[in-house]
Amino acid sequence: MIDLYPQGARHAVIWLHGLGDSGAGLAPLVDALDMPADLPVRHLLPDAPERPITINMGYKMRGWYDIKSFEDPAERAVESHVRESASQINTLLDQLVAEGFAPEHIVLAGFSQGGVIASFTALRYQAQLAGLLCMSTYLAAPDKLADEMSEAARSLPICYMHGIYDDVVSLSLGWDAKNRLEEIGLAPEWHEYPMRHEICRPQLGDIRSWLLARLGA
């Protein structure tokens, strides 16, 4: 795990990478945000474990969970793996709190698979976080969310970002996540960009502005 911990940081962002990537793969994103020097933020970029991925012919790669099929919602994210990964991130959140970071000063962010785990974890975490940022992603076990969502998550600031031309996680899956969150009383912010399954330059400015608003600047 990469842990960028500037002196005096009282806020933290946990960044969860996508399938086949690593924490190091998201480090350039953190650099590109160019957060203000007078708001030191700790950035943690953990690595998913290596596991066989069914849709990739069973090849082993870093993945927060296996994907058996994108066609069947039940096979889009193997739930047992999702819960294992979410438990790991939940433990990381608890460790940050034990080190003195207030939950309301912690943002959980993720891209693609990482966004699935970020949302699954944040929406069930027992203390309210500063925010949830989900990029080019979807929900795992959406039908169970209403029963499992924590009371703290009811006022959680949420932002979804998605590429209009995403050919890996279709825009419709992002819209489905947004609509399902609205159906249970949440109010996710939504941004679309003329891009594929990636992060674009205009999006960086929006991420930066959203983080600054969440972290008290």
UniProtKB/TrEMBL annotation:
Transferase listed as a keyword: no
SUPFAM superfamilies for this protein: alpha/beta-Hydrolases (SSF53474)
Transmembrane feature ranges: none
Keywords: Hydrolase
Keyword Transport: no
InterPro entries (alphabetical): AB_hydrolase_fold (IPR029058), LYPA1-2/EST-like (IPR050565), PLipase/COase/thioEstase (IPR003140)
MF GO annotations: hydrolase activity
Highest taxon of source: Bacteria
Gene3D superfamilies associated with the record: alpha/beta hydrolase (3.40.50.1820)
Entries under PANTHER family matching the protein: LYSOPHOSPHOLIPASE-LIKE PROTEIN 1, LYSOPHOSPHOLIPASE-RELATED
Homology family: Belongs to the AB hydrolase superfamily. AB hydrolase 2 family.
Descriptive protein name: Carboxylesterase
